[in-house]
Write a structure and sequence with these properties.
This protein is α/β, with parallel strands linked by helices. The chain contains 10 helices and 8 strands. The protein has one domain: NAD(P)-binding Rossmann-like Domain (Rossmann fold). It is globular and about 50 Å long.
Length: 302
């Protein structure tokens, strides 16, 4: 399946995680449609590989800014460069993400799923507020349906949604603590936070014509899968990958929401492969949304 892309000449798109997996397919599709794509990459060799992939014809439409999105300092510096270079942003795809098999903490003291899978998206949405509003941007946050079901193996029992209780939390550094750490649940909680914070930010963006949606791309054969496949199944990794979507297919949902004229003005939704779907009730709880925004703002105010 391939989205018929509109002409995106004169459009600026910020796409994170464009050095691999689905993000690379999203960036290439946008460049091929005429957009100017900006990304933030932590690994120079992977950045060079992306440039080579784009090739001579598209390289003037690709801007790679160095930075590690899990670090507050890097994210803020990259956002400032983007704001200085681009008056308007028309598309923002917060796609970068990872699953960490053990408990890790960012240089800012934040558990890594929260730092990368949630705060990077929140940080770019808020730090790029002005060019996003000027461009009446479409924002797409790549979440994961693990937020609706944290079971690794879905054969037995009922779906077990991710949980998020901020009532006793005074600092994002308190979330996903080492004690009782379950990697898949920690990943799913960060994605639930992305959706929850997104619902809250949608309300402030709507008056300026900015839309904000989250997507689950499907189960896609990318590098992240190596971490997500349970250890006993890893010897069958190659076979399992063949049952999954390709990165190009996985990119379709985000691309459609970001560019398809039929999604113009559509906002505040979570799409599971293009179909609007529910998210856990806590994501719609106004007190939780507000607390999350307050904690996130405090993180970036340090
Ligand atoms: N694959 C699936 O089945 C699936 C399902 C649901 C949701 N998702 C979500 O889809 C998104 C894309 O994942 P993918 O499957 O395409 O995974 P992937 O192939 O592992 O790609 C992840 C991308 O994020 C970048 N990234 C990771 N950590 C970063 C950091 N600290 N700073 C800057 N960039 C960083 C990676 O850059 P490097 O090149 O430097 O590693 C890479 O470009 C993620 O948000 C993931 O959670 C995936």
């Amino acid at each position: 399946m391939t989205t018929a892309m509109p002409d995106l000449t004169h459009h600026t798109a910020v796409v994170t995680g464009a050095t691999g997996g689905m993000g690379r397919m999203i960036a290439l599709a946008l460049i091929n449609a005429g957009a100017h794509v900006v990304t933030i990459a932590r690994n120079p060799a992977r950045a060079d590989a992306l440039r080579a992939h784009v090739g001579k014809e598209g390289e003037h439409r690709l801007d790679i800014i160095p930075g590690d999105l899990s670090r507050r300092e890097d994210l803020c510096a990259a956002a400032q460069i983007i704001e200085d270079r681009y008056e308007q942003i028309h598309i923002l795809v917060n796609n970068a993400g990872a699953h960490f098999a053990d408990h890790r903490v960012s240089p800012d003291g934040i558990e890594m799923h929260i730092a990368l899978d949630y705060l990077a998206a929140y940080g770019l949405m808020t730090r790029l507020d002005t060019p996003l509003r000027r461009g009446r941007a479409r924002i797409v946050n790549v979440a994961s349906d693990t937020l609706n079901d944290t079971r690794r193996v879905k054969l037995v029992g009922k779906p077990r949604p991710a949980t998020l209780d901020l009532t006793q939390v005074d600092d994002l550094a308190d979330l996903n603590p080492q004690e009782g750490f379950v990697p898949f649940e920690a990943y799913a909680r960060a994605k639930l936070m992305t959706v929850t914070g997104g619902y809250a930010l949608t309300r402030s963006f709507t008056p300026d014509g900015v839309t904000l949606n989250a997507v689950h791309p499907g189960v896609v054969a990318t590098d992240i899968i190596d971490d997500l496949v349970p250890a006993p199944l890893r010897p069958f990794g190659a076979i399992i990958r063949r049952t999954m979507l390709t990165p190009a297919d996985g990119a379709e949902t985000a691309l459609r929401i970001a560019t398809d004229p039929r999604f113009a003005g559509v906002t505040g939704h979570y799409f599971n492969r293009g179909v609007a779907a529910a998210t856990p009730p806590i994501s719609h709880d106004l007190a939780t949304q507000q607390k999350l925004l307050t904690l996130s703002k405090a993180h970036f105010a340090r």
